[in-house]
Amino acid sequence: MMSIFNRKKHDVVDLTLPIYPFQQDFVGSPEMKKWDHEVGARLNARHAGINPDEFPEGMSQAWEEVTLTTHVGTHLDAPWHYYPTTGDKPAKTIEDVPLIECIGDGVVLDLTHKDDKSLITEEDIKKALDEIDYQLKPNDIVLIRTDFDKHWGRDKYFEDHPGMGKESTEYILDQGVKVIGIDTFGFDRPFGAMGEDYKETGDKSVLWPAHNVGKEREYYHIERLANLKDLPVAKEFTVVVAPFVIEKASAGWVRAFGVVEKEKF
Q1: Are strands 251-253 and 75-77 parallel, antiparallel or unpaired?
Q2: Selection from 18, 37, 32, 20 nearest residue 64 by Cα
Q3: One pLDDT digit (tens) per residue for the chain, 265 residues
Q4: 10-19+70-264: which CATH architecture?
Q5: Where in the chain is the domain with CATH 3.50.30.50?
């Protein structure tokens, strides 16, 4: 049987940020209720019409109930998140994102030198590509590395990260790329930084410029990636970013990972 993954030849690098219950978050803090094995026995027994002590040691299955928004944790934004339409067509919601777009050749661009709250420019992208001697090709999945995932759980994670701009996003899309990911809270610069720019200039184009590219061009981006520093290579690996299917939703949670040849570790 043919397989793209060989345990003897490949390793997997987890690129997903964990979801912590009750962790403070700008877009809604996750909540979790837990039912342990003893509670599970009582509930299952009730539904089965038996006594809880019929189960071995009085225990049965545990489970959890989680409440969170689709934009908490590592997630992929669908075009519907950006605007109701893409060009002159209805924007896709998350269940319509083609899975074929969610697996591809990964490319990591090192932007760890960028200052807090700064804009990642087209020139930054070109320079990062030059540094790894790589030319983007159609259907690559581009991962923007800032290492801001190390600040997860602190205000700095939400308030100080660099972010993509209109021109830098368009440049990547011009190469035939459909999926771009970043290891920050948001794809654009922080809410407060964009708000201050708007109050100073009155220019609406400074508000979510990278997101707003999606009003005219269909693309998908991933927010809150993690561990990009743990990838041993910046190119020549496979990345998988398939989102959870949620009917008519603007985003879906992702278990993102890279598949890398062991000889590259």
Answers
A1: antiparallel
A2: 32
A3: 345 678 888 899 999 999 888 777 888 889 999 999 999 999 999 999 999 999 999 999 999 999 999 999 999 999 999 999 999 999 999 999 999 999 999 999 999 999 999 999 999 999 999 999 999 999 999 999 999 999 998 999 999 999 999 999 999 999 999 999 999 999 999 999 999 999 999 999 999 999 999 999 999 999 999 999 999 999 999 999 999 999 999 999 999 999 999 887 6
A4: 3-Layer(bba) Sandwich (3.50)
A5: 10-19+70-264
